[in-house]
Amino acid sequence: xxxxxxxxxxxxxxxxxxxxxxxxxxxxxxxxxxxxxxxxxxxxxxxxxxxxxxxxxxxxxxxxxxxxxxxxxxxxxxxxxxxxxxxxxxxxxxxxxxxxxxxxxxxxxxxxxxxxxxxxxxxxxxxxxxxxxxxxxxxxxxxxxxxxxxxxxxxxxxxxxxxxxxxxxxxxxxxxxxxxxxxxxxxxxxxxxxxxxxxxxxxxxxxxxxxxxxxxxxxxxxxxxxxxxxxxxxxxxxxxxxxxxxxxxxxxxxxxxxxxxxxxxxxxxxxxxxxxxxxxxxxxxxxxxxxxxxxxxxxxxxxxxxxxxxxxxxxxxxxxxxxxx
Length: 325
Prior knowledge:
By secondary structure, this protein is mainly α. 71% of the residues lie in helices and 0% in strands. The protein has two domains: 1-156, no CATH class; 164-284, no CATH class. The protein is built from 16 helices and no strands. The chain is globular.
């Protein structure tokens, strides 16, 4: 008996969007973004697990064997992995996949698929692994976190995320957590502590911390105030969801992620690159939390228009930053 082949309507949406995004990220001119020249230069270096993670070198060796070390195919491989893993996560968790894809493209596509390509894949794997928290499958969760850490070592920090309670939300605690982070940032309470414990961390992590710290002391890293309009609007997303949470198994996880993300961002803001890198794992939750907001309003069209305007503004802002306009 031949079964009928059914095609999910989401696949119909995702296929052309995914292919387009992969082509844009994979075939972008090398040097148009901040990191691609450095990546291209690293392809001819000897393997160094302090400088780059194992997955980077594995993909590089695969690219050499199959494509003769072509730089463009190297970036194409990363684009395929980054984009499709993100779309898999969106299809799995989103209450409105079209809006989630729009949020992803506006906030994260350029950053994670065209600049921070190693972290971009690690973030996608981490998001996909959240289902293992709900299913209480530590073996699968830890495997995915270890896999993510092969793309970016920072992912290993989130092995502890398995123990988060996905069934209950303490609204007061998670509402106050970002504010507590601002207090810690204001009084510089974490600076000396983190550098004191860094020496006891594994070398591949401590080296990164000390590199970021030295670069910052030499004023070679851009300093951005984490208390700004963009983050204020994202805080509104957080607090709206806290107030009107429907307490579904995933919405609670995403709310906690965003709250923890702000705490990380503010608390570790003295090493801005490090803070944003860790916080970006958590901030990807807005891809799912913004659609939750839409479901709470009767006048969805009006809210769609407002959100679309803001997302378009964010997209063009990121494009202008990319092109140095």
